[in-house]
Amino acid sequence: MTAQELQKAVLRHLELSLGKDLAHATVYDIRMSLTLAVRDQVIAPWFESTRKTYAAQSKRVYYLSMEFLIGRLLEDAVNNLGLKQTAQEALDALGFDLTQVIADEPDAALGNGGLGRLAACFLDSMSTIGCPGMGYGIRYEHGLFRQSFHDGVQIEEPEDWLRQPHGWEFARPEAVERIGFGGTVEAHDGRMRWSPADAVLAKAHDTPIIGWQGQWANTLRLWGAEPIQAFDLEAFNRGDFVGAAEQEAFARTISRVLYPDDTNGEGKELRLKQEYFFTAASLRDILRRFLSEHDDLELLPQKVAIQLNDTHPAIAGPELIRILHDEHGLEFDHAMALARNTLSFTNHTLLPEALERWPQALMARVLPRHLQIIARIEEAFLAAQPESPVRILEDGDVRMGELSFIMAHRVNGVSALHTGLVKSTVFAQLHRTFPDRIVNQTNGVTPRRWVLGANPRLSALITDRIGPGWVDDLEQLGALEPHVEDAGFMADYAASKAGNKADLAAWIADTTGIAVDPAAMFDVQIKRIHEYKRQHLNILETIALWQDMRANPRAGWVPRVKIFGGKAAPGYVRAKEIIRLINDVARVINADPVTGDLLKVVYPANYNVSMAEKLIPASDLSEQISTAGKEASGTGNMKFALNGALTIGTLDGANVEIREHVGAENFFLFGMTAEEVVARREDPQHQAKAIAASPRLAGALKGIADGTFSDGDGARYAALLADLRGHDYFTICADFDSYWNCQRQVDAAFADPARWMRMAALNTARSGWFSSDRTIRGYMADVWDITPLI
Ligand code: RUG
């Protein structure tokens, strides 16, 4: 497509789809017109992919996920179709700037963090590889809340991405499923029949996901909840206007909000309904498609692979059995075997509070038939494993982790370390019983978004030196390694980082009013705010550094900009205290004339995918400092390494594998190992001893306690301090000195720009393994048993 052709298509949509004349077109109008024009280009490969899948009678993969953190789609599509330059020229001619138009698209924030973003990367990779499949989730009216700060305190407001039409999706009014809740179960002619008391409609909305170079496109199908009947006319005519809309309110509530739940358990009835809603709708859709091609249910595991992204869709096990047994009349054990051979399950966390459990009483009320089926699953499991101490139903709860494990033929962890821990801790008993079931699939990230889209400077440089093949074969980055010895390449590499940093500095000045020096080290920690991720360790080190700098400002310090980004779950009090503390510390440090440009602390509000795309390419240092054993994998760590930021990190999650790939000498390691953390906690005095041994840590804690950062209000952080001094489960104190010392090694390396840039370039050259294309190929081979169709 030429720029002229694209321009014509944009103008046609501007007139005919948006009803606007160019003379009055806003950025929004142009963005929508461009979106529709680009979307037109996606349709043919999309249809073709579906035709090929049917023609090959291929197996399909269905990725069931409560979260798809897809962010903006226009730039991905433009890049994948090779239309970036063309679109720029087309818009230039119309007097608009592509970058500005792309930035106008609201982020689809249908996820909390890593789990949802991983699902989005997987969709891109599946389409790039030609793995026939579909993502299934919920079309939340409001994604993750919008964050702002008032006096440093996090304020949450509803996010509103659907206020404007969503240019990418196609509503499918014909693809509706009736989803019931509650009611009774009775036996009829030897079969159990569930009669739900309430029901809603699940209506499909399809977004095509185009792969690299437009060779394949899969579908993301998101379900929106609608009432069975628009409103109750009889109640309305009686004058009961509120009552008349009750059904609608109930239905819409189901797809209204994304639970702001990352690793904090949420035990809400609505969440259970959301989980069942999208899982049941998806399964029916999947079976309808399967039965349109095959008439033998026996073939189900050969033709269908269903991936459960965490336990959120775990009700798929009992629901599939219910359909096969209650509706199609298969024997229970047979139905269970077919379901198990079709389902597989990814575990993303070991945090006990995140392993879902539903009260049996709640399950009995909302999904009475499913509770009966779960009891039979447990019975069947125990009949085969009479010695096993494992129970799905325990202490009045349904344990969704155990249910998922027992109902899946493959269970995977998301990094080598995490998978080992899954085997040795949370599912140790089940692993003993089924030693082949657990496999590892280390996470990955899509290079199309996280390098090509987010970092055009670096991408152009890479392509210039090794050609464009790296974009869908990221291990080709290895060919950059010899260039690290080439002064010309290194100068270009450093220039690309400097350009990104200058852009970021301008953006920071614009959005926060804080002037930062682009020559300073950009030290970045962006992720959900959680005690295990230890943003408070970072801010304590920041305070200690500031105190040292003030005491001796001319000691040759390496200037730093500490950048934080992330949201706390609204109900997570401690995480919100940490946010406030960071903002308080930032206010004081940024105003200090003694330290001036030596140290700045920046915390732009409302961190999201698009902000990550700005921050990561401009980062020097990537903070991956979780308490070892707690971060299942991380994916941000991979994005940073690819973009040439050096990691300071613990031996946790995928950090371990990143360090192996980039080389220990190009990675700043500190802190206790997972085993050491467990052993250290045995000593109830571990935190007190660490504080007593570290005057610096004691000084930083004292700075908080005496109100230096809280206008003299010593009580503001009393609870946080008491926890650190008295309990410190996340071992902040015990790791503080190690972290501090490691940061000084970071300073020393940064003070030698040639050394630093070499390390950074080696990180880029050696991180090709962390592509989600590699991960998806792993799932295809080890979990789904499917081959690509391109
Ligand atoms: O916390 C984990 C990350 O370590 C991981 O990289 C990501 C994707 O596998 O999933 C995150 N996660 C875990 N998000 N929610 C949960 C709780 O189930």
Automatic annotation (TrEMBL):
Assigned EC number: 2.4.1.1
GO cellular component term, pick one: cytoplasm
Keywords, alphabetical: Allosteric enzyme, Carbohydrate metabolism, Cytoplasm, Glycosyltransferase, Pyridoxal phosphate, Transferase
SUPFAM superfamilies: UDP-Glycosyltransferase/glycogen phosphorylase
InterPro entries xrefs: Glycg_phsphrylas, Glyco_trans_35, Pyridoxal_P_attach_site
Protein family according to the UniProt entry: Belongs to the glycogen phosphorylase family.
Primary role: Allosteric enzyme that catalyzes the rate-limiting step in glycogen catabolism, the phosphorolytic cleavage of glycogen to produce glucose-1-phosphate, and plays a central role in maintaining cellular and organismal glucose homeostasis.
The protein, known as: Alpha-1,4 glucan phosphorylase
Organism of provenance: Rhabdonatronobacter sediminivivens
Upper classification of the organism: Bacteria, Pseudomonadati, Pseudomonadota, Alphaproteobacteria, Rhodobacterales
